[in-house]
Write a structure and sequence with these properties.
Strand 6 (about 75-80) and strand 7 (about 85-90) form a beta hairpin. The protein has a four-stranded antiparallel beta sheet with strand order 1-2-3-4, with no helix packed on it. It has a four-stranded antiparallel beta sheet with strand order 5-6-7-8, with no helix packed on it. A four-stranded antiparallel beta sheet has the order 9-10-11-12. By secondary structure, it is mostly beta strands. Helix content is about 5%, strand content about 40%. The longest helix has 5 residues, at about 155-160.
């Protein structure tokens, strides 16, 4: 779970069908909206079928393996899976909405578990089988980029830690 853009975010369902889905609630104007991850209007209506920016929804990430953690940053939600890291952020407009968002793959490095992902202020650090990485915002694109913290420092030490210790 995470909270971003005035919404609750959910992922990590153990399922072959929806395991790679990230769901977000309607804008939390009332506490009852926290579980409403769907469109408020009737999409079959001939009068008002349109998606509204404050609606809830689902972001499928077909390439993602098992999603193990979500972390909110100032620009979006970072999705950590067993086979990579993705970023869900604002689309064409300046803010996230149900009708305008983008999904970008940040890294092919899988995350070991939810307990190996730590958020500190607007920085996210995670452990992967190959090292410890930090997500930093690229000033040009505004997207997170994964950089190794261990390659030039403690890589040999890190590689000698047993898998159960990581």
């Amino acid at each position: 779970c995470a909270f971003f853009a005035g919404r609750a975010w959910y992922a990590g369902i153990k399922s072959n069908d929806v395991g790679s889905w990230v769901m977000f609630s309607q804008v939390l104007l009332e506490k009852d909206y926290i579980g409403k991850c769907y469109q408020n209007g009737d999409p079959t209506s001939e009068f008002s079928p349109d998606l509204v920016d404050s609606d809830g929804g689902v972001v499928p990430i077909p390439e993602a393996g098992a999603i193990v953690a979500l972390k909110a940053t100032s620009g979006g939600v970072v999705v950590f899976a067993s086979n990579g890291v993705w970023f869900i952020g604002a689309g064409v407009g300046a803010k996230f909405s149900a009708s305008s968002y983008e999904v970008r793959k940040v890294s092919s490095l899988g995350v070991l578990s939810a307990k190996t992902v730590v958020a500190a202020e607007d920085t996210v650090i995670f452990w992967s089988s190959g090292g410890i990485y930090v997500l930093q915002t690229d000033p040009t694109s505004g997207l997170p980029v994964a950089s190794s913290l261990t390659d030039n420092t403690i890589k040999t030490f890190y590689n000698n830690i047993p898998a159960t210790g990581k």
